[in-house]
Amino acid sequence: MSEAALEEVSVLSSIYCGDGEFELLHQSADGVTVQITSSVLGGGGVTLLFHLPPSYPLCPPDVSVSSTALSRTQCQSIRRHLLHQAASLPPEAMVHQLMESLQTGSILLRQDNPSELDLWVSVLSLDHIRSRNRYVSLLERWSKQLQLSGRLILGRNILVLLQGNKANIKEFCCLLKTVKVDVDSSGRKCKEKLMKVLIETPVFCSGSSLQGFVVGECSSLSQLRAAFEEVHLGEVYRDIQPSLRD
After folding, report:
1. What pLDDT sits at residue 20?
2. Domain limits at 76?
3. Please, which of 33, 100, 198, 209 could form a disulfide with 26 given CB 3.0 to 4.6 Å?
4. Nearest to 151 by CA among 82, 230, 81
């Protein structure tokens, strides 16, 4: 665990020093988990678990949110906003900053459109991947944090196939365009500004078998079609085929 993380835990325990506000739940080689119980502006009490990985603050914390005063949808909304904000912040101590944005109302509570809670599939087209390890690591982490299943398909066409809650897919796309995920031709870190959404559609049957986040390669359109058919999304492939490179 980095000295920065341990120092932040000490600072947090001093700031959130009220009865039941702060608790160090876990500390090991896998990282540190702290619990902070506070209040959301106009929303009542909320408990947040921050897991600081060994590489923190170079990597942002994972967050879980629970509350007896807020709905499950509201807690999920808070979590999405916190994860997005954490991913966009500089690599430095950030838990207190996240808590402040929550307590001051910078993160607004909202009810998602019920249709967005259904299962959706989206296919994203990426322009390039130069820093493969970093890029893939971020995509895997975001899909896990946002509870999305997916595939990264490499080849002449670089595609990200996502399945899950529509709002979470939109959050994934927002992260992709606002966080520096790759490097440009000069080796400078850059954002994925050229990402395109080829299709975004609800799944009307339970046939799709996407699980976890898998990275694969397809060197031809026939292999790409087979990859979609393997997870029972052949119709999605037919819809996006006109946008693909031969």
Report:
1. 86
2. 3-103
3. 33
4. 230
